[in-house]
Automatic annotation (TrEMBL):
Gene3D superfamilies the record matches: Endonuclease/exonuclease/phosphatase
Annotated protein name in UniProt: Reverse transcriptase
Database matches in InterPro entries: Endo/exonu/phosph_ase_sf
Source domain of life: Eukaryota
Phylogenetic classification of the source organism: Eukaryota, Viridiplantae, Streptophyta, Embryophyta, Tracheophyta
Amino acid sequence: MKILSWNVQGLGQPRTVGRLNQKLRDENLCIFFLIKTKLTAGRMAKVQKRCGFPNGIDVDAVGRRGGLSMGWKNSCDVTLRSYSVRHIDVVIKDDTAALEECALDDIGYLGSWFTWEKGRREQSNMRLRLDRGVANNAWWSLFPSFKLQHLQHSFSDHCPLLLHTNSSGNTGNRVWHFRFEASWLLESSCEATVSDIWQSSGDNLLEKLSQVSKGLDKWFRKIRWERNLSVHDLNQKLVQLNELHPIDGVLGDIVETKFALNLELDKKELYWEQ
């Protein structure tokens, strides 16, 4: 089971919602918990369903402040206990015994040491570990092979926290089905690829269409691999930059890298919107 917690600092912009949607898809989550959505419960419920989470509880923001959201897939057995403008309390499966204890300890993390950053100049830059995971002894016994990751991101002052309750588990394989996507037209090689396959596929119309679909599927697998590699490389670059002393040059590189990451994510977002 994978659970994501994130102080998103507002989800009022379509682009921000798209980034959230992509992050949830990339991590193949069971449950997410979002803080400071700055949306009404009704608007957040629509965002939740757009992101592929049919179940959840949303708490209204108060004006332009606050707002909570928790969503989960049908495969998760979640029962709501209580909620307010400051908390959402749920029981996941039957682990009620673990919730009775209140002796909580920091469970540590993997990734950058800080979860919050503000300021793009060395003199004003601040980094703090404001977001963390805590658990009691019973929880540690239930999930001995867990890991908590500080993920890289390109929006919000806070980073997402991704919890793997079984970090050695198999998440399964996703099945890829062919269909033509509008985002392919943004790739300069698309037209030439279709033309080459069409001209080399004989005279039968159905055979031509079949060969074009197979060829485009193979072509886009390569494009998608290169795109994912680029996003991965940019995320890794952010990891390395965040480990350096935050002088002006480093902070400038971080801004440029996040800008490049946003461009790559825009391409992926256009694909998922089809």
